[in-house]
Amino acid sequence: MKISNNTILITGGTSGIGRGLAEALHKRNNKVIVAGRRKALIDEITKANPGIEGLVLDVSDAGKIAEFVATVKEKYPGLNVLVNNAGIARMEDWKGDKVDLAQVQDMISTNITAVINLTAAFVPFLKNKEGATLITTTSGLAFVPMAAAPTYSATKAFLHSWLQGVRHQLRDSGIEVLELAPPYVQTELGGEAQKKDPKALPLDEYIKAVVQIIESGKTPDGEIIEERAKFLRDAERNGSYEKVFADVNAMEFATV
Questions:
Q1: Which of 76, 152, 184, 241 is flagged as catalytic?
Q2: By Cβ atoms counted within 10 A, which residue in 2, 165, 225, 228 is the most buried?
């Protein structure tokens, strides 16, 4: 992916990693459009960063996708980068008498179905665009799950596998397909505790590392893996999976 002179749409772009990427890429001379559920947050980021534009979208509302995509294509015909970043994470208790299936379905709808719907809608539009790139945010937990968040971990594992297939199919299309797999970062994803957890990687440090990786072009296997996520990515490869799984699930904090 080229680091500047793109037109970039970022879902879940009003907070956390999405906002961090939006602001960093905006500073690198890209036209950035953020999409999110909460208009107040869109207004906040656009006011703080003149030139960033925002659109309201709840990615889990499949009925709104077609209208949203049509609006984007009309307003931003130069769009060449889609960042599927919107996602939600919830802890689950499978030991009790009742599992919150509505919560499970919300994660599947947001983390999987919405990504597939948006990608399917935009891929034909991105073909033959200079520097066309599709980025999807997964997680280090795509490679080693956290038992307290089984569905969240599974949605990210799904995306990792799905992206491999899509990347292979689009290898001659001119669209670069990248997976962004963060480690444990100080964001609101796991609530205020995660945002303030000193064990988590500070958001600004993570965003700086991601931009450096993109700029370097060093994305083996189409993956953007910051140093602190590599122990998760490599666990299966180097035979340390059982130990890493035990270590991850002995932690007293959420590695999402």
A1: 152
A2: 225
| Structure tokens given for 57 | 């979208």
Is residue 42 one of the residues assigned to a domain?
Answer: yes
Query: How many domains are there within the chain?
Result: 1
Residue 194 lies in a domain: yes
Q: Which domain, by its residues, includes 99?
A: 7-248
Rounded distance, CA 45 to CA 215, Å? 24
Alpha-helical (H) ranges within the chain are: 16-27, 39-48, 65-75, 101-108, 114-126, 150-169, 192-196, 203-216, 230-233, 235-238, 241-248
152: annotated active-site residue: yes
pTM, full prediction:
0.94
Q: What is the distance between the alpha carbons of residues 163 and 177, in angstroms, rounded to a whole number?
A: 7
Q: CATH number of the domain that 58 lies in? A: 3.40.50.720
Per-residue confidence in pLDDT tens, the chain, 256 aa: 999 999 999 999 999 999 999 999 999 999 999 999 999 999 999 999 999 999 999 998 888 999 999 999 999 999 999 999 999 999 999 998 999 999 999 999 999 999 999 999 999 999 989 999 999 999 999 999 999 999 999 999 999 999 999 999 999 999 999 999 999 999 888 778 888 888 889 999 999 999 999 999 999 899 999 999 999 999 999 999 999 999 999 865 444 4
